[in-house]
Amino acid sequence: MLPNSHDLAAKLIHDVGYLGVYALVAIGNLGIPTGIEFVIVTAGALTTLGKLPGNAFTVGTVAVVGELSGAAVMYSAGYFGGRRFIARYGHVVGVTKTSLERVEHFFDHYGRYAVFLARFVPFVRGLDGLPAGVAKMHPLKFFGATLAGSSLFCYSLAVLGVRLAKQPTLAAGIERYALWALLIPLGVIVVVLVRRAVARPRS
Predict the structure, then answer these.
(1) Residue span of the structural domain in which 125 resides
(2) Contact (Cβ atoms closer than 8 angstroms) between residue 112 and residue 145
(3) Of 32, 36, 43, 109, which is most buried by a Cβ count within 10 Å?
């Protein structure tokens, strides 16, 4: 039995179609947990079951647009207002000018890789745009890396949903274990890169 939140997401997709997919994915990229992985897999499965028009490509495309929309909001917030906010109130949460410079240094050197990998890590996916914007990461680099990571992530999950609909007996095991087997190593890589960049003294 799926959790209530998953039931609600599935019902929303069934009732309003791709608008629901787009909304849930976009909101999930604002740091609000909406179960993006489940949403995309469910939508892919519904296309196979004839309950949603289109196919895996359609689902993946709508999901990618949702990811880009949410990422654009977070990036813009960081780019246009984040630095002023941190300069004024950062000391309250322990963010100093030095730590901000380290973040900028990190995104100057590793930004594209971090943004790409963040697309595969729950919760981090919805937050990476904010520090990237604060660090003034070039928009083309940020959105290019976001598009690349989101495309691989979304289309893969959409195809997985189609496969699971055709082989329902495999669904429970794959949903429970396979995704985390991919996400945990990627999360470790991101953490290691961040720690190395923050610990490295500026020249």
Answers:
(1) 4-199
(2) yes
(3) 43
Number of structural domains the chain divides into: 1
Give pTM, 2 decimals.
0.74
Distance separating alpha carbons of residues 54 and 154, to the nearest angstrom: 15
